[in-house]
Fold these 4 entries.
Entry 1:
Amino acid sequence: MVAFTRVLMSWRLIGLGLVGASCLVVLVACGGGGGGGSGGSASLSTPAAAALTPATAPAVSTLRLAMPRQGITANELAVIVAEGDALSESIAAEYQAARGIPAANMIRVKLGTSADSISAADFALLKADIDAKLPAGVQATVLTWTTPYRVTGTCSMSITSALALGYDAKYCGSGCVE
């Protein structure tokens, strides 16, 4: 009897104002809980609830509440690897193993990694290569190299921003030209 009281009291506390057998069945099926007395005996506050006892309560079944997924899955993530760069290759292999990234989502590109920046023209070719190799359903990319880290042309922009937004001066700050 105490469990039934606690379920009804927890719903009444949040102001839903639901009483009666149908409310109780849903709450019991969802687990209910919270609020209520400290154990022992408790009184039921409504006539409809007072008529329910474990013997007279309707049968319940387990209900599942589907919450929206948070984050992305390994299938929705691509790892971009600078082919031939030992650090990039090592980081990519470790990341793939740790996160379970599918082999199809490991994108290998030819990229010089000795300079801090890449020209806007070379970046356009790199982006086209990456876009052509990305599997359907990929929502995010991980870059596994340390340089180049910026794209230069009419302005200077981080390579991660340029890949996500496209290289465009409208995304550059006023003090970011090289």
Note: Residues 1-44 have pLDDT under 50 and may be disordered.
Entry 2:
Amino acid sequence: LLVLDYSKLGANKLNNIRKDFKKSEISVKVVKNSTVEFIFKKLGYDNCNVDKMNAFVFGDDPVVLAKKVVEVQKKEGALGVFDIRYAVIDRKRATKEQVKVLSTLPNRNDLTAALLSTMNAPLTSFVMLINELNTKFVRLLDVYKNSKSS
């Protein structure tokens, strides 16, 4: 969950951002502050204040959320379209700076691909070794055959 201050945004700009985020399977919701305060208190998020115009960004992977928000901020330039207030990740509050650092990390899919390729490397090497032994054996038989026929 990312909390953004969207007071600089107009309604059309917010709707465009929602559409853009939806392509990445990210939801952007605007909820009354009193409702959010009630929910946060029930969940035990005491250090999460909601005193401004807040937009709440939800998604499965916090790294993807952070990357998308920082990407939109960079694309819009120095004025910025919104400010990152904080994030809630695994029931812990993360600051604006931590969210920016999070946006530089590889996402879950990239990490999974790297892990699988690392796990697959020894098997690939073993298969190549077995194949090389067979190739050398066939070459040896070919040399033997050629020497017999000469």
Note: The beta strands are 2-5, 27-29, 54-58, 83-89, 92-94.
Entry 3:
Amino acid sequence: MRRLLAALCLPLFVAACSGSSGDSGGGTTTPQSITVALATTSASAVAGSSSANTLTLIRGGGFAGVVSLTAEGLPAGVSATFTPAQLSGTTLSAGIAFTIPLATTPGTTPITIRASGTGVSSASATYTLTIVAPPTPAITLTAGSSSVTAA
């Protein structure tokens, strides 16, 4: 009786331990995922100007869903625009334009660029933006003269 029970249970035990679900593929399935990379990881820009970058999306495990892009931790007044705002199908890159108003306080800020899709963990990359003050114009006034010089 023990031999019969062992003969019946052994194939079930082997299948359970091998992780086989009955298919004969023998391979493992890569989980769906996304990863992002930036063309540059840092930049300096003068207040009152803009800065640009490019994001590349890497899709893993056959993931083909829509991916939304956001920027987190922007300095006050600074905006980020993604073109396109969402990546779908075979679209694997987006441009990022940072608009920096003239009144923006100079300083260095790490900005998180995040990609999110349904059914996958979000992915992020850090872009460090250093904002510098615009140059102060030099103005010269000469008393008794009818000319003004500005540089």
Note: Helices lie at 2-18.
Entry 4:
Amino acid sequence: NANIDMVTNAGEPVTRYSSADFSGVGPNSSEQVSYDGAAGKRIYIDIVNRQNAALRYTLQITPELTAAAVVRADGVVDVSDTSAGSANPSDNVLPDGTYGVIPIGNVVVASIAPAGPSGFSYNTYIVEVTEALNDLSLELRSLGDDPEAADLVVQRGAVITTYDDADYNSFDTRPPRFSYDSPEQGSIYYVDVVNLSGQVVPYELRATSAGLVVSAEQARDPEAAASAEVIAPSRGSSLVSELIPGQHAYGELAGKLGVATFHTYTTSVPAGTVSLEIELNASHDLDLASQAEDAISDYLAASVYFANSLHSRERLHVDNPPAGTWYIDVVNSLGEGVNSSYTLTITVR
């Protein structure tokens, strides 16, 4: 029941509490705010502790969207002609609504609720292109008996209002997969997973890219230009591969009971390097570790650089790193059943 505050702002990070959309600074232990017409907006939320003690809190975000809030064109499909295979319901069954941003290279695994009175149900996601990419691919795979039980709809730049006017829908095409060539940096894509059946449908939605547009500097290095990304082939602990500075590594790491799982990468740091920077962005709270010369056996060893905050983004910065091979571990210590996708990048200067 201690006093803890919440401050929110739409569109931009909170810079001053007095000018934010909502500032719950006051003698309360509970704060609540709602946004009408929030589709497509990014809401920034600050939790504020003004006391001299650690405080535990619960933050709940509830999208109050219904099928009626997103109007679909009549006659897109004939529901009576649609037959989905049996699905295996999971604990993560999502009703109609918008469920956030999928970082490129990541995967969402969930289940979509059965079609409602409108004849369908939908889960909406957002994909942002933050770098100059060669392409953007969006792929949906149903995880039940019928691998094509759910449908995919994609629209660039605007919230989906009608399925037949979207850039792509999979109602008449299989498999449900769509790609954009040379997507504009800064562009936003809205992605709907659609269920026309009366069954819960588990699914896997991936947002991937063949890699960054190769810069002039990379083009002078044939090895770097040959491959702009690395994809970890397994969810279990493994030595993945070498990662060239400037590349992106994408993977998914499964949690395991009682032990930390890991994906290990290596990188070569040239002589004269001023700084080594390693950045990890994940869908859950993964950790990041690195060490020169030898594979890591103890994350708490003095020779190991270890970032293990309670955030989904971790960063390691090493000044004047010794030349040679560096080992990098992406670590999942979240336990059984908690899988996390991630993107890993390395920069040397």
Note: Residues 64-90, 213-220 have pLDDT under 50 and may be disordered.
